[in-house]
Amino acid sequence: MQDFESNTLDQQAEEQIVEVISEENIEMKREAKEEKKAAEALQTLIDEAIVDQKNQFLRLSADFSNYKKRVEKEKLDSMKYANEKVIIELLGVIDNLERAIAHSEDLSNEESLLSGIKMTLKSLTDILKNHGLEPIETDGKPFDHFLHHAVMTEPSEEVEVDTIIQEFQKGYTLHSKVIRPSMVKVASKE
């Protein structure tokens, strides 16, 4: 009988162990399903975040591209119309010259024509000076190869060697940058 009881106890113990193992298996399967669902939810969140980041990058890329195009257009427009102010100011000079031409038909008024031309020239030089244009000084100045272009030399006892004797064409600087050197005659040794 002891064998029977021992077998029954062993069988009951086995059944309890199987039951515990089954419950643990069920619990592990349930936990695995929950973990799988959590992993899938996490993967969905990651995928959505990646798509959002990609869309944000594409929007930023398009915005930057549009910005570059807008800046380039503004730059081109700025260059295109950079001289507008100067040109508007020069229109007055053109008007004065046209009036001088119209009045030049009356040759009896030569003095006023010359006076009008001188005033127009002064107006033009004043406009250009206001925009940074300055004539290069040459009269009696020492020759400077950065400012002057010697087209002739002539021996002279009146001035020192390498002194400018005569100016053939005025030179100009624009905001201190030489844009046209003066064409000059320079004193040389005999």
Question: Would you write up a description of this structure?
Answer:
The protein has 190 residues and is α+β, with helices and mostly antiparallel strands. The protein has 3 helices and 6 strands. Strands 1-4-5 form a 3-stranded antiparallel β-sheet. It has a 3-stranded mixed β-sheet with strand order 2-6-3, with no helix packed on it. Strand 4 and strand 5 (177-180) form a beta hairpin. It is rod-shaped and about 150 Å long.
| Largest sheet, strands/sense/barrel | 3 strands, antiparallel
Helix content: 55-70%
How many runs of DSSP E, i.e. beta strands? 6
H/E element sequence:
HHHEEEEEE
Q: So how many helices?
A: 3
- Beginning-to-end CA distance, first to last residue: 152 Å
Low-confidence stretches: none
What fraction strand?
Answer: 15-25%
